[in-house]
Design goal:
By secondary structure, this protein is an alpha+beta fold. Helices cover 38% and strands 25% of the residues.
Amino acid sequence: MIIDLHGYHIHEAWKQFNMLALHAYHKGLKKCIVITGQGAMMKEFPVWAQNHPKIRDCTQHPYNPGSFTIKFAKRKTNDK
């Protein structure tokens, strides 16, 4: 799954990210790519991922700094 936040204002992007990350987690995905672009959002995104309860890792792509791979925490069987 790819979450493309490029072009959103920061607050709207944050809301979209949270909603789509939860959706991906509940679908059982293990990881996802997030595109932020190379502006202010790129600098803030690692904090968003670090503070998200369902994300265990966030890695910025070395050759495209405006994109990240996030890895989700392992789903619990009773987690809905």
